[in-house]
Specification:
211 residues; mainly alpha; 10 helices; 71% helix
């Protein structure tokens, strides 16, 4: 029941579509422009730096709140809070990526994933932030930076589970791995078109507007 509750609460939080709401406040449906997504990168590309920052903060916070609630209020047995937190975060990603009231057309869940990472471990947060900034600065590919962060998130959680870093009960460690893998896989699934363009050398670079 705790897992279902975390997923449900997370999904409800994820329905707060910051990019869509911000776009509507400026008279457009952001999903009709650029990449067609309602996330941070498309808001940045279509509406500018201020919009990108506002959308990121909104999508980030809508993940941090339910994640921390799940971690500290539903943890129960020592260490299970981290497992429930991943369920809540995954629920947010589902709500963000597939909002029912927008015909399931949302974003890609990277800002939401960043919220999970922040809620999980400050060391992982610094690692992912450094990797993302470095990759985007060098290549100007936000999608590549996002995918690398997803891999780091997964690798870190497998390491943390193997060494007992979070005190997760041994019987729950495989579950911790599984939910982490699903979250990372979702990022790759939502970026499948970007991966093709990266392979072809046709991916959009940050700073270049997409018509």
């Amino acid at each position: 029941m705790e897992r279902l509750l975390c997923l449900a609460v997370g999904y409800i939080f994820g329905l707060f579509q910051t990019g869509f709401i911000y776009g509507r406040s400026h008279g457009i449906d952001i999903r009709n422009y650029g990449s067609g997504n309602s996330g941070t990168t498309n808001a940045l590309r279509v509406l500018g730096v201020k919009a990108g920052l506002i959308v990121f903060i909104g999508d980030f916070l809508k993940t941090v709140i339910p994640c921390l609630i799940a971690r500290y209020l539903l943890g129960g047995q020592e260490g299970m809070g981290y497992v429930y937190m991943l369920y809540a975060g995954f629920g947010v990603i589902l709500g963000h990526n597939f909002p029912f009231y927008l015909k399931f057309k949302g974003g890609k869940g990277i800002a939401a994933t960043a919220g999970i990472i922040f809620s999980l471990d400050w060391r992982l947060t610094l690692l992912c932030l450094a990797a993302f900034v470095l990759i985007v600065a060098v290549t100007r590919y936000v999608s590549l930076g996002s995918l690398v962060v997803s891999v780091l998130f997964l690798g870190w959680n497998f390491w943390a589970g193997s060494v007992g870093a979070y005190g997760i009960p041994s019987q729950a460690v495989p579950e911790f791995y599984a939910v982490s893998a699903v979250i990372a896989a979702m990022a790759f699934w939502r970026h499948r078109a970007n991966i093709v363009r990266l392979a072809q050398g046709k991916e959009n670079k940050i700073g270049a507007k997409k018509q």
